[in-house]
Amino acid sequence: MEKREICALLNETLQGAADGIFEHLGVAVEYGDEPEAEVHDFACSIGFTSATLRGNLTLTAGGAFLAETRPKELRQGAASEFELCDWMGELGNQVLGRFKNRLLVTGNAIVLGTPAVLSGFQIQRRRGRMPLYAERLAKTEVGSLALHVTAEATRDFAITEREDQSLVMPEGELELF
Amino acid sequence: MGKKVIVIDDSQTVRQQVGRALSEAGFEMIEAVDGKGGLIAIQNTADLAMAICDVNMPGMNGLEMLEALSTSGCKLPVLMLTTEGQSELIARAKKWGAKGWIVKPFKPEMLVAAVRKLTAA
Questions:
Q1: CA–CA separation, A79 vs A83, rounded Å?
Q2: Which of A34, A62, B2, B41 has the highest count of CB atoms within 10 angstroms of its CB?
Q3: Going residue by residue through chain A (177 aa), what tens digit of pLDDT does each one get?
Q4: What is the rounded distance in angstroms from the CA atom of residue A142 to the CA atom of residue B47?
């Protein structure tokens, strides 16, 4: 596949993952451009790899956005910095989990790392050296979340002609054995 | 006291969310933050009714913990709660004796229903 096609796939996959998360959280977001212009307080990065694709997902967000999007039952009262950091990592985990599940049905199984989270001042994500990228900026009235995927693929990277939904169990579902 | 459930997840947010749902349903919860801690807690807690376990955790992951439990002959029901939905991983969990799988994010009422069913025996 050509670089342009893989970037389109990554963008579509990232958008689908973000949409699913915010719908579940019951948070209305608007998507904007130029996520690199945003200055945030928290960041999370998770690596992923397969035989033909490797890269990472990086999220940056403001504390108000994180506080607003925590699971409903935990939103009462002010969240500590530790709790916001923890939610940043879990949010990254859930976005990348959905990203992985959407890639799986195209015949691409990636293995996920564990989240690395940091908090600080004026954190800005810059586009890295990897040739493939996808970006989204999700905004609410109180803040924003920038989502970045950067990756590189081998020449063998391909997607199946038809998506195979049997390869993955959908998010939010339960199966008892 | 309600039945005791161990929740093994490296995210405090998830442990709090699960803990809230379980306590409202009358269960008692203990916690571990990775597979190794979960394994030790399970081996040292006599009155556990079941375990809820993440897959991707630093150190020993949830599937490795499940394999270790299975190898040791432990029959504690384990419900996997994870962002992973890959059928290959689900098959591995089933092979090592897991009793169920939920793909995060989860609805608390669904989790409680599964816990009630798995602790009913």
A1: 6
A2: A62
A3: 889 999 999 999 999 999 999 999 999 999 987 767 788 999 999 999 999 999 999 999 999 999 999 998 888 888 999 999 999 999 999 999 999 999 999 999 999 999 999 999 999 887 778 899 999 999 999 999 999 999 999 999 999 878 888 888 989 899 999
A4: 46
Other Cβ atoms less than 10 A from the Cβ of A156: the count is 9
B65: tokens are 């913990």
Among A82, A83, A170, the residue with its CB nearest the CB of B85 is A170
Which candidate, A3, A6, A4, A14, places its Cα nearest to that of A136? A14
Q: Quick check: A22 and A29 in contact, CB under 8 A? A: yes
How do the residues of chain B divide into helix, strand and coil, expressed in percent and rounded to 5? 45, 20, 35
Nearest residue of A to residue B21, measured between CA atoms: A73
C-alpha span between B97 and B74 (Å, rounded) = 9
DSSP assignments along A10-44, one per residue: HHHHHHHHHHHHHHHHT---EEES-GGG--EEEEE
Q: What is the distance in angstroms between the Cα of A176 and the nearest Cα belonging to chain B?
A: 4
Q: Which residue of B has its CA nearest to A90?
A: B11
Cβ–Cβ below 8 Å for B99 and A173: no
Interface of B with A in 92-121 (CB under 8 A): 94, 98-108, 110-111, 113-114, 117-118
How close is the nearest chain A Cα to the Cα of B58, in Å?
7
Residues in chain B closer than 8 A to A25 (CB atoms): 105
